[in-house]
Specification:
The chain has 286 residues and is an alpha+beta fold. It has two domains: 37 residues, no CATH class; 227 residues, Jelly Rolls. The chain is 16% helix and 34% strand. It is built from four helices and 18 strands. A hairpin with a 6-residue loop joins strand 7 and strand 8. The protein is globular, with a radius of gyration of 20 Å.
Length: 286
């Protein structure tokens, strides 16, 4: 999806050069590098730079966790904290998707599971989660919630975001979820979107996710401690018909998830989901 590197790779094939014995070698190196980037992006949505006056992904990470974050492959790091990019879609066509859990069970960049199922950020499961607004760079109103189950259902609101830039408010928590599966959702005055691309118009993916790890101990969430894993959700709020820029900074939410076992995506929700929703606690402000 939106992978500019593919266009760059095909564009390089059409380049014609005249003299200089060095140019063919340089062009070959650029082509190999470009193809490598395209391959590395399999399973990931491309994130564009934001317009002037808005913050990019690395700048948002700088503000939230300190230091200066630089791009390393699909991840970002400031040398102490690693923002590890989670698959948006299955790495290969035809692979199923598995819920993301506390353990950050996201393949850690490997090619895929032997059981034909990849873990992406489209479905989620945990014992309990807390959600806090982190940033907003958007014209539309921003509300945050979820949809119960792996498909269908109705939007369940958690909080309405107040403010703009980094001066934002809004938070909520959900407890007693054990085994529950859901899709995150962004709702506003233009559209309701979810973390599952099949729910959205034209199957567009509207959310990208980073897991926040300590570099020295990846897989353990930071901040939050050994029993909590921290994620950042970055949303694009515009539909394909609304001239989206795909910079994924319209709404940024920090998620802290507590441990749970990973059920299969088709697992029934039943009483566990009802208990989780009944345990919803809302609290305004940061």
């Amino acid at each position: 999806m939106y992978c500019r590197s593919l266009r760059r790779a095909s564009g390089l094939l059409a380049v014609r050069v005249r003299v200089s014995k060095f140019v063919p070698a340089i062009a070959a190196l650029l082509l190999v590098a470009s193809i490598g980037v395209a391959s590395a992006r399999a399973g990931y949505t491309n994130v564009n730079p934001p317009p002037p006056g808005e913050k990019a992904t690395n700048e948002i990470l700088d503000h939230l966790y300190g230091g200066t974050f630089i791009h390393v492959g699909m991840d970002y790091t400031n040398g102490v904290v690693l923002a590890h990019r989670i698959f948006d879609t299955a790495a290969a066509a035809g692979r199923g998707i598995r819920p993301l859990d506390l353990l950050g069970n996201d393949l850690d960049g490997t090619a895929g599971r032997t059981d034909g199922v990849d873990t992406t950020d489209q479905l989620w499961t945990a014992d309990s989660v807390s959600c806090t607004a982190a940033a907003r760079y958007a014209l539309y109103n921003q509300n945050f919630g979820f949809f119960d189950g792996t498909s269908g259902g109705s939007y369940i609101p958690l909080f309405s975001l107040g403010g703009t830039g980094f001066n934002v408010s809004g938070s909520a928590s959900i407890g007693d979820l054990g085994g529950h599966i859901w899709r995150w959702s962004r709702n506003g005055d233009n559209a309701t979107l979810t973390s599952k691309n099949a729910d959205n118009a034209a199957g567009i993916y509207h959310m990208v996710t980073y897991r926040i790890d300590f570099v020295s101990n990846t897989g353990t969430g930071a901040p939050g401690g050994t029993n909590v894993t921290t994620y950042l959700l970055f949303w694009e709020d515009k539909l394909p018909s609304d001239n989206p820029d795909y910079d994924y900074n319209d709404l940024v939410v920090e998620i802290r998830a507590s441990a749970t076992n990973v059920p299969e995506p088709a697992a029934a929700l039943g009483a566990a989901s009802l208990a989780g929703i009944a345990a919803l606690r809302r609290r305004r402000g940061r």
